[in-house]
Amino acid sequence: MILRGWVAFLILSMAIAAPAAGSAKHSCMTTHMKDAIKINRERGAWYSQLSDGQSQRITNLLIGMEQRLLLGSPIIDVSARPYQKAGVPIVCEDVIDMSFTPAFRAQNPAGPVAKQSYRRVLVDVVHNKLSEKLKNDDFQGMAWLADQYVQQLEKQPRFNCLVRHMLESVRRTALLAPRHEAAALRKGLGSPRTLSKLILKSHLDLLNKSARIDILAAPLQADGLMIVCQDVPHIPRP
What superkingdom heads the lineage (predicted)? Predict the structure, then answer.
């Protein structure tokens, strides 16, 4: 209920907060999303040439998802700013700079594989299990579970790359959430737990859309096009 109220507040205050975020020193989430959109626009044109236009829908869906995230990013940045000013690096430490995105390659060096080798993620199961951990504020359990899914997906590194990216991010934020909270309380600030939970919930809510993009990308990835997989940075544990 608290989280739902917080989301409503963010939506209502978005128009007011966005200018403030743009003028602040640290707007890590906004910067992250803008950089992601820039990379995918640039690479989208290259993929389209390599695939005779077959990749364009994938690029459009990916950028569309990023643009929707960008709309809410200033609110995340504004909410994080009091903590960041006090030396608690919430949000900025959660995201990985897009400069760590792998270099573009026109073809997977491993060559093509059979399209039948692709296996869909049971994303509803993943979503429900992680949501239960989040509901109970079980950040350690959430991080552990996300890590188990990541390890499973790493067995087929050319497929399901966007879902894997989301789960890597869930793992990192879930591990950082208790650290940020402890640091904030030591400095006499209120708990940033609600902000961490909002970030985590936004990732869980994107799992289905991410899975749809992965499904569309799979045939091209099987042929050797590295779309999506080389367009997001690896997100390590903190």
Answer: Bacteria
Range of the domain at 41: 2-223
What would the two tokens of residue 12 be? Answer: 């209502």
Separation between Cα atoms, residue 220 and residue 229, nearest integer Å? 11
For 179, the 3-state DSSP assignment is helix
Both tokens of residue 238?
A: 């903190």
- How far apart are the C-alpha atoms of 45 and 38, rounded to whole Å? 12
- Residues 108-150: pLDDT tens digits? 999 999 999 999 999 999 999 999 999 999 999 999 999 999 9
Domain count, the chain: 1
For residues 45 and 49, give the distance between their C-alpha atoms in angstroms, rounded to a whole number: 6
Question: pTM of this prediction?
Answer: 0.90
- The number of residues in the chain equals 238
Q: Measure the CA angle with vertex 156, ends 153 and 160; round to 5°.
A: 60
Q: How far apart are CA 90 and CA 99, in angstroms?
A: 20
